[in-house]
Fold this sequence. Notes:
Radius of gyration of chain B: 27 Å
Low-confidence stretches of chain C: none
CATH class of the largest domain in chain B: Mainly Alpha
CATH architecture of the largest domain in chain B: Orthogonal Bundle
Oligomer: heterotrimer
Protein name (chain A): Cobalt/nickel transport system ATP-binding protein
Pfam family, one (chain A): ABC_tran
Shape of chain B: globular
Number of domains of chain B: 2
Largest sheet of chain B: 2 strands, antiparallel
Largest sheet of chain C: 2 strands, antiparallel
GO molecular function (chain A): ATP binding; ATP hydrolysis activity; ATPase-coupled transmembrane transporter activity
Mean pLDDT of chain C: 85
Order of helices and strands of chain C: HHHHHEEHHHHHH
Number of strands of chain B: 2
Domain ABC transporter (chain A): 6-236
Family (chain A): Belongs to the ABC transporter superfamily.
Amino acid sequence: xxxxxxxxxxxxxxxxxxxxxxxxxxxxxxxxxxxxxxxxxxxxxxxxxxxxxxxxxxxxxxxxxxxxxxxxxxxxxxxxxxxxxxxxxxxxxxxxxxxxxxxxxxxxxxxxxxxxxxxxxxxxxxxxxxxxxxxxxxxxxxxxxxxxxxxxxxxxxxxxxxxxxxxxxxxxxxxxxxxxxxxxxxxxxxxxxxxxxxxxxxxxxxxxxxxxxxxxxxxxxxxxxxxxxxxxxxxxxxxxxxxxxxxxxxxxxxx
Amino acid sequence: xxxxxxxxxxxxxxxxxxxxxxxxxxxxxxxxxxxxxxxxxxxxxxxxxxxxxxxxxxxxxxxxxxxxxxxxxxxxxxxxxxxxxxxxxxxxxxxxxxxxxxxxxxxxxxxxxxxxxxxxxxxxxxxxxxxxxxxxxxxxxxxxxxxxxxxxxxxxxxxxxxxxxxxxxxxxxxxxxxxxxxxxxxxxxxxxxxxxxxxxxxxxxxxxxxxxxxxxxxxxxxxxxxxxxxxxxxxxxxxxxxxxxxxxxxxxxxxxxxxxxxxxxxxxxxxxxxxxxxxxxxxxxxxxxxxxxxxxxxxxxxxxxxxxxxxxxxxxxxxxxxxxxxxxxxxxxxxxxxxxxxxxxxxxxxx
Amino acid sequence: xxxxxxxxxxxxxxxxxxxxxxxxxxxxxxxxxxxxxxxxxxxxxxxxxxxxxxxxxxxxxxxxxxxxxxxxxxxxxxxxxxxxxxxxxxxxxxxxxxxxxxxxxxxxxxxxxxxxxxxxxxxxxxxxxxxxxxxxxxxxxxxxxxxxxxxxxxxxxxxxxxxxxxxxxxxxxxxxxxxxxxxxxxxxxxxxxxxxxxxxxxxxxxxxxxxxxxxxxxxxxxxxxxxxxxxxxxxxxxxxxxxxxxxxxxxxxxxxxxxxxxxxxxxxx
Lengths: 255, 351, 269
């Protein structure tokens, strides 16, 4: 299924103030992969994600979705296949009911109302919130908002899910729920986060960004155990992988 | 500043609603044709911002009091006249519905008073002229101040005119004007201060936001003549039509009701009256309370010349009015009570 | 700051009430909107001194309050908050017009009658507007507006404003709390701080608007907004509208209160 492939070819991006946020970034993500994108604050994660979905365009290099190059022209077709979940669900849920928010995408692609209904119900089912469909987004809890935002993207039936900090500012229970959801999705996934424990649980592959450049790209269990690498990039070994803080006992054997 | 439903007549309310709808339709067309679609969420969020900003009180220097932003001028400056006007319209609608500020019938008056004068008069004719020579804190201050004051003065004047045309109060034109204009001069100064403070901050922090509005090819020019001509035509037509209705004594709506109902006057027609007097002889609990005879001498009080609209108040009707009014209220309360009780019973039965 | 909390509470309350499913709630939103407009239009068409004929109009709000299971106290509180404004203008009437009117043995200034009339009209008009939203909700009202051929873009913009009021008021509240903790005993924000206080808030609003636009365009938004199907007006909706309109018109033509009074006092012609 080569058409689900997402490829970045030597991407560069500078902001108008001259700050070079992304430098020479290349990778290919294949169908069904789940990839964690990690890096310190300001490492360029969000910028990179915006380049992938065509909110920003690279100053050099290109993004290919399937075998189609991302340009202003191909944007509408490509965006249908990419589902981008923003960090702040309040930006993503802007309608007055959850239903209307989840229906927003399908309606914009001109589906008839019966099909929209099927899609909305399916998406709400997938994230387990059919009971919230008539609620106002601003009255949901943080965790509910987050999964509603994910549903608003699932209803477009994207091939690739891209998420910016899906577990930030969630209480433990809501966080667990989101992690369980993510693990169950069969989509190709790209998850940008500081929550390395979550990345460890949900992603098999990890890309480390440091000051706009790729510092490492490999299997999660290799990278997330690499103390020197992580610390040099302003990160640390996930808590779940650190030795016991009380007795110092090893939780996992280093690989 | 908000015009209330209770102060206007249907004719004035209807005329202003029509005028506002016309300007809104024109603005919507402008916005849709000329702007990029990213302005739509911006208008939405700006509307919410003005709402939130109105909650922030600030202390007014030299006085012990505090004031808050109105936002009409700010919206025009940041979004341009068309998008600013539309945003003001949605703010006012939400205020009318959720907070009872203004009302549904007075909605047109309010959008006109608070949105039209700021966006289509004060902004293009004053603010833009004053700031054109160069954007700097001084020109922003002078521009915001003068345009806010003028905008509010026009709005206040408009309130006075609309109220008096509606004829729902006894206030003489002069006194009302003398009351409204100075108050709104003070409010205008406060509005100007707040607007200037915010615009200056934005100009320092993110000048491109102001430049986009000021020099954007689509948002810059207001064909003020076109807008005004269209408006005047609309008001004359609608106002003319409605006042024609209204001129039929005592007012337009009643005239049309007469037509519909086929009755000529407000007095109880015979059919109903007959039935009533039959029932009433049986039901009246104060049958000897003799107001029937009083009717003729009550009107001996000297009548004021300009009072054609003042109906003959007779004591009989008045007492009936008071007793009946009280009974009406009791009935209404009783109805509510019964519905509540039966609802609760049904609720229990289901549970 | 209490007014901020109060506004938040008010919006939230009305929104919650609108999610009920009573028989008033399921009446078509356009019908409820039109009925309310007819009500207000008939109400304000009365002469400025009319008092008793206005009273039968109490039935409509009472009917809705009861059937829609709306709590009376918060609605009345909201209405009372508006009254000072109307009293401000209305109270001048007795000053300017002290021509006397005789009611049996009582002599009152005519200005007071006008004042009372304005007061009642205002209370009723405000009550029914708030009840409209409390039984319909902003999303359904938007539907009604679309049926009235209001451009979709305007309706979308209205919905966005409504949606983000909640968020921005909360933000304003947090900022105000942080400010007042560092400026004790102050009545409001200092005018010198106002620019950066509201300016910061405004810049964040701008950024938010941009992000919202991004999430919209990622989901295929190109400036045309498709809001889905409009629900149909059913027969019972027509009946509701027709029945109330008829009542309003009858109450406009006949002074029902006086008729009832006549029944009780035996005052005929």
